[in-house]
Amino acid sequence: MGIEITQWDVQEMIGTMPVKGNRQPFGLLHGGANAVLAEQLGSVASAMHASQFNSIAVGLELSCTHHRAAREGTVTGVARPIHLGRSTTTYEIVVTDEEGKRTCTARLTCLIRPKPPGA
């Protein structure tokens, strides 16, 4: 996928992903690739939040709305929290193209669970 996280913070997780190698048959960025980028950013941020409770974060729900196509270059995802609780987190992830145009809006909710024994 070529995802690179460029900013690590519970309040704002940022990452990039190349369009090349992540296209569907019509030459557009695959919607599933947007979902992977969103899940990666939101899950890592949720895991960072969960760590303060000696817990882990697991994905519960992901929804993506694809607004416009990206055909080349790199897309950037920015994950910001909507809710940071002890049992769930919810992040909004906005994906934009190199011109700063929004290509996808995603929302990820993660469940915060106790860390399993031995983990």
Automatic annotation (TrEMBL):
It comes from Lentzea sokolovensis. Belongs to the thioesterase PaaI family. SUPFAM superfamilies: Thioesterase/thiol ester dehydrase-isomerase. It holds the Pfam family 4HBT. Keywords: Hydrolase. InterPro entries: HotDog_dom_sf, PAAI_dom, Thioestr_dom. This is Hotdog fold thioesterase. Residues 26-104 form the Thioesterase domain.
